[in-house]
Specification:
alpha+beta; Triger factor/SurA peptide-binding fold; Chitinase A, domain 3; 2 domains; two-stranded antiparallel ribbon; 15 helices; 57% helix; elongated
Length: 344
């Protein structure tokens, strides 16, 4: 019986040593602790540590200590910042592996200046490690240099992928306009949040008022939108700035075309939508500054969409069977940089 207990104790100690690397440097010929396998790569604890340490320092500086156990609602689940960050780190490592593997396809190499930059950054990172860090993670200067080299190659591949695709966006597609929407609403929003549609008689009255307002604007000099809004108590009337796509989403394609056709200062005819009867006044048919900003946002969105499609295909070629939930050793992944936070 005593022998049996001794054997069980030895087994438990052996498992514990494998998971924690026993806090010692492995002897030559021993394998480093592996967080997970991806493609032909063993992602060791040391390599994972390099990515995790950077994230840890950035997050701690930005959000302070204790952020890791904060609960966030992600979809239908509640997850801690710690768990979300571990997932992000793994995805970052995989992305770098996949992208850097295509450097040869694009004839991408590092020049002497880039190599020198990597050498300096690697040296600085390694010198920032304590003896305990090095002993527990088994990081070497070569490992740090390799990780930083792969990151720089991945960045250059990413830039080249986007450079090879035409993301030209027309001014019309990006155009931002500012207009006033005077709406004679045909619905009532109740206290419980439900919407009640007006009766046919009440709708007809709202149409009559909208036509009266249009006549006042055309015939009575000095009549302002504000005076009409106040006169008819139009609670949902307001000024808006939108893009073409936002106009279509809000009002539908036909109404969006009518609004976009207006010149500065021009007022539309009475237009019916699902909300009621509208008079639109164009305040600014092309806000150049906002149009420029919107064009950049559209380009960024299209770049992201295009890259995600390319990357998805590359991941399947690199490792079609990787399953983060099943393949990652989360005991190792969670040791750093979050173990001290958990103990608080």
């Amino acid at each position: 019986m005593k022998n049996r207990k001794y054997i069980i104790l030895c087994l438990m100690l052996a498992i514990s040593c494998v998971l924690s690397a026993c806090g010692r440097k492995q002897e030559e010929g021993e394998q480093q602790a592996v967080v997970y396998h991806f493609g032909d790569n063993d992602i060791t604890y040391g390599e994972y540590y390099i990515y995790a340490r950077t994230v840890y320092e950035d997050y701690s500086q930005a959000y302070g200590n204790g952020v890791w156990n904060l609960e966030l609602n992600v979809g239908e689940k509640s997850r801690t910042v710690r768990d979300i960050t571990i997932e992000d780190i793994i995805q970052d490592i995989n992305r770098v592996k996949v992208l850097s593997s295509h450097a040869v396809d694009y004839s991408i190499e590092l020049n002497d200046n880039e190599k020198a930059e990597i050498e300096n950054k690697s040296e600085a990172f390694y010198n920032g490690l304590t003896d305990a860090d090095i002993r527990e993670t088994e990081i070497t200067k070569d490992i740090v240099s390799r990780v930083m080299t792969e990151n720089m190659l991945a960045s250059k591949v990413y830039d080249q992928v986007l450079a090879d695709y035409d993301f030209e966006i027309s001014d019309e597609e990006a155009r931002m306009i500012t207009f006033y929407d005077m709406v004679f609403e045909c619905y009532e929003l109740k206290k419980d949040g439900s919407v009640s549609e007006y009766s046919p008689e009440k709708k007809a009255l709202q149409l009559e008022r909208a036509n009266e307002a249009l006549s006042s604007l055309a015939e009575e000099e000095g009549t302002s939108f504000k005076s009409i809004v106040d006169k008819y108590h139009l609670q949902y009337s307001a000024e808006y700035t939108m893009s073409k796509s936002e106009l279509i989403e809000e009002y539908g394609d036909n109404v969006a075309k009518d609004i976009l056709a207006l010149s500065d200062g021009e007022v539309s005819m009475v237009i019916e939508t699902q909300y009621g009867y509208h008079l639109f006044k164009m305040q600014k048919s092309n806000n150049e500054e906002l149009t420029k900003e919107n064009k950049q946002q559209i380009i960024i969105s299209k770049q992201k969409e295009y890259f995600n499609g390319v990357y998805e295909d590359w991941v399947k070629q690199y490792d079609a069977h990787f399953n983060e939930e099943k393949d990652v050793n989360y005991v190792l992944a969670g040791q750093f940089p979050f173990e001290n936070e958990q103990d608080e």
